């Protein structure tokens, strides 16, 4: 496994686009997290203009709810698109520059080639989870008084939900990359599905005039986003009637992981059956 990761690192070490997209991801993530409380309170101010009962401003950076709030804002579609595009580019470049053939000539099996990409995805997900956890701890400590270890750990399961989300969205991107093999086409169709096609399908399936069902919650990208569905903001429950999460549920994580396993199986089948 270490050998496979070393091969992947050699490919990305001098690849400027990879580091640019990773840098953009962290810039957008940091900006979003720092602006999150301001944006939420701006929404509260707008609601207060039309409500006879004023709603107080909310604080989202204190323990234990900071885990849920940070992971929610870190897993919105517009932020997750960056690591997904990174994976698509890395996969499609293997076909564009024929490096996949060179790896096969050098003795790497197709299973090992796929495993090398999955190990890279796993490592990226783990590193980003660790960095987010460190950042969340710093933010939480800075905004919480009377801190205890039990208070800090109380909602920390949401950070593992972030890991599941990050891993699954990258596997979904891996699937598009291997199936389409063309960078522009794969990015275009992946973006189209994430931002347009699946949201439209979600609302169509959810619409009461079709038939009452819960199918929409099991769509691939939506199942990934549902791992951390809402931030822990009381006004969402009071005004909009949302049921706020208490923790990251096992079933909620299992659905996107099952999708990920199916996609990995599909990619392996394509690798075995199709010519390189």
Give structural notes.
The protein has 12 helices and no strands. The protein has 276 residues and is mainly α. The protein has one domain. Helix 4 packs antiparallel against helix 9. 32% of the residues are buried.
Strand content: under 5%
> What would you call the quaternary organization?
single chain
Number of domains: 1
The helix content is over 70%
Number of helices: 12
Low-confidence stretches: none
Describe the main β-sheet briefly.
none
Beta-strand segment tally: 0
What does the overall shape look like?
A: globular
Structural class: mainly alpha
- Whole-number radius of gyration? 21 Å
Mean pLDDT over the full residue set: 84
Order of helices and strands: HHHHHHHHHHHH
Present the secondary structure layout.
Blueprint: H1 2-12, H2 16-48, H3 66-73, H4 77-96, H5 99-105, H6 110-143, H7 149-153, H8 157-180, H9 183-206, H10 220-225, H11 234-240, H12 250-273
Helix pairs in contact: 1-6, 2-4, 3-6, 3-8, 4-8, 4-9, 6-8, 8-9, 8-12
Features:
0% strand, 276 residues, 74% helix, mainly alpha, 12 helices
Give a summary of the structure in a few sentences.
By secondary structure, the protein is mainly α.
